[in-house]
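Hi R.,

Here's the chain you asked about this morning:
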Amino acid sequence: MLDLFPSASGPLALVGNAPGLDAAAAIDAAPCVVRFNNAPGFGGRAGARVTHLALVNRGGQMREWLADPRFLDRPVVRCAQAFILPFPMLPAEQNRPEPICWTREAVDRLAPLGKAVHILPEDLHRAARLRLAAVMADTGTDEPGTHESGPSGRPNPSTGFLVTLAFLLGRPLGRGPVEAHGFGFDGWPGHPWAAERAWFRQAEAAGQLRLHPCRP
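And here is the predicted structure, written out as C-alpha cells:
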C-alpha cells in the first residue's frame, strides 16, 4: 500500500523510538528512511536521514503539535520529504463533542512545506486488526488494556505497526527485507505490544524484515 519511492531499490529503514538506538551509519545508508512522531535521536545516534515522517493524527499528541508555533521548524519535520498520517479522517459526526481526529488541521499545517502527505486508509486498519487478532489467537496473547473500547474488542494497532504493514504490502518482490531499527514494543498501554512483537518476529522468519534490537 506504500511504495512511495519506487526507484529506491536498496534497503528501506524503519526507525522506531526505543531508547538505546545507536545505528546511525546503517540507517543513513538506506535510500528510504521512515521515522515516527518526535523521532528521538534524530541527528545523532539514530542517524540524520529521513524521507518519510509518520505523525499520529488522532489524540493529544497532534493537538500539542498544532498548538506549537515552531512545529514546522523542527529539524526532522524540515528534513522529511513526505509525511504519513496513519489514521483516515473521521466524519464530522464521529469527531464530537470532543475532537480526537486532527487530520484536516494537520494537512493544513503541513501545507506550507509543499511536501506530500499520505493518509493510510481504513482498509489497511482492517488488515492490521485481522493480522493482530490472528496472532493473539495463535499465541494466546490477551494483554489487559490492549483493545479498543466498545463491544467489538478489536486489537488497536500502533502507528509503527500500521506503517510497517503498509510498506510491506506495497513493497515489490525482490527489494529485500525491510530493516526495522529501534522497535521496543512498549508505550501507550492501549496497543497489543506482545502481539505486535510476535507478528514482527513472524515477518522476520518469513524473510520480509530484519529486526535490529537496541543495545541495552
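One quick note: The helical segments are 24-28, 60-67, 75-79, 103-110, 122-139, 159-170, 193-205.

Cheers,
M.
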